[in-house]
Amino acid sequence: MKDTTDHIVDPSYDYESKPWHEHGDERPSNFSPNPTFYDVCEQRFSRRRLMQGGLAAAVTSVYGLSFASNAFARDLPADLIGFEPIMTSEADSIEVPPGYRAQVICRSGEPISGDMPAYRRDNTAAEQEHQIGQHHDGIHFFPVDGSSEDGYLVMNHEYIEPRYLHGAFEGRALGSGEVVYLPEETTVQAETDPPAEMQELLSAPGSAAMVGDGQAEVDVAEVEEAIEEALTQHRDRDQVLKELYAHGVSIVRVRKGESGEWSIVEDPLNRRIHGMTEMEIGGPVRGHDLVKTRFSPNGTRTRGTLNNCAHGVTPWNTYLAAEENWAGYFTNTDTLDQKPDQPREHARYGVASNGTGRYGWNLARGGEDEFVRFDASIRGADATEDYRNEPNNFGWVVEIDPFDPESVPVKRTHLGRYAHEGVVFGPVEAGKPIVAYAGDDARFEYIYKFVSAATYDPETTDGSILDEGTLYAAKFNDDGTGEWLALRPGENGITDFADMGELLVNTRAAADQAGATKMDRPEWGAVDPNTGEVYFTLTNNTRRIQSQVDMANPRANNQFGHIIKWRERTEDHTGTEFDWDLFVIAGGPDTSADLKGNPLDETSIFAAPDGLWIDPDSRVWIQTDIGESAQNVGDFEQFGNNQMLCANPVTGEIRRFLTGPIGQEITGVITTPDQRTMFINVQHPGATTTAEDYAAGRHLSHWPDGGDAWPRSATVVITKEDGGVIGT
Ligand code: FEO
Ligand code: CA
Ligand code: CA
Fold it and tell me: What is the pTM of this model?
């Protein structure tokens, strides 16, 4: 399978020349103009007119007015968005508006702990364990004593680009994501992996979508032969360990110096949490049969967090790392009657069936327990003798206390198991339940909400409040109303689960049964702190066909994505009804519409909205992630490199604020409490470099260090020359 987002083989995909795995982004498969776009806009504004006339009057909202009548028309300051928008860019640089400055810190490989090992291309695994990871994503600034000049940056490292992690890979023809295998009992390195014929046969895991119609018949003997061949290869043990350490989360103190520059500070709280860190399993899944393994026969502990995309910050000041495209790291080669035979908790998520998974970690030379666990095939007499359940320990939200270096991270299972993009909390009030929203970033997957059973107490509440409550999936009705469908055994048509633990391990299947609305890849969510409105980016979905269009996902072949927003009917966000609308339909001048129905222009066009944050003044910050194979080609050429924009939530006006270097995505955004320093992350610069160019040393990006440096993910610190609030 080429990507992890919908688990369907793409027959048009060029398996030979493209990376085996493109980090979960959808590869655009249809560049034809979308004939339904104007129909979509017409429908949308017809619905709005309908609501203004009739339905709106019937909508009772705590704000006293309906959504469609723009109840939140408020007086936002004239300089809410005061900067001059910038144009799109294809340069290998960070561009910001006049009057703004950008500084780079926290590059991949910079030391933060231990004996502070300096960055080198050939750093060992042991050194990487004390260095910033690769592929920065969600980020938060935890101030020290409320300071805006001293605090801890906590950030996710979503995945890795092995060719820019290992000095030993230099000069090989490697695409983005490819690793080097060692043939059995030799030290000569193979050029590619896995064998091409095996990729074709086995690249698709046996997902639910695959097993039914449309799955090509495969020759079982050939498949078995290909798996056999894969298993004769090995990975270098130290390289695999370094890759595990380059994933996860970094906690690092940073401080503003007298010159205004920020830098890393050595600190006892600095630490790395990664693919090997021991963790507790919390919530209803703790101790469940489905998470018992050889490592934890009682199903209470596991090792590592992987593919941490966006994040969350709890009202009690801890950090949440979401596990997104984790399924492909595992392989399960079990077959029955000559067909892949994975349990639904693997198949519905896209666990690989190719014998190697994404990076071949199960094949690390030496065969130690921490590596073979990535092979979830049945090997032992029962689940406590093998790793058939190891994938079930992933797909969760992990709670980390950055202020206690001895604390053990906890997987909070009541938030559900899926391709968790991130988590965002609703408004918090003492004596009321905690409410959290999260999206499942895969094509045709769902948006969820968790409501705690206990109520919030600022003095005593901790992460255990997330262990008991109700998980809901969202249903968006075409009339602009919506419902939250409770996911509990025996309710809402959910019949297939013996207990809550089994349901949570199979969250997607439960939401299927409840009839939730299939969305166009839900990415980040954000809550407007001044109105309680909830926004979610829906990044794209070119697989949606006209007969699958609905009002919340209104575009067939949705290449460019959109942003949806809703308002809960209850002020405390705990109710089961809401009212929704589209905030913006992304695209070029001919394919976009803002909140007022006007097209975006050269100062505001964008595609593939992903990162999202609403600052304390209600500025809506939008970040983009056009996949590397689409950047600056075809219909995507007009958007330039990935970028960040700023929107006014009342007028819908959008202005481009920042453009990033070549091949990257912009992701993760937070400011200091005084809003005068902003931190954003640049992930995977140079990912558009082809295998041939990599082999020849022609790296398309040298950001941030220039010259002939390898590209490195890093954090960018943005300030205003006049010391003002970012965005003004
Ligand atoms: Fe990791 Fe859905 O972006
Ligand atoms: Ca993302
Ligand atoms: Ca994305």
Answer: 0.89
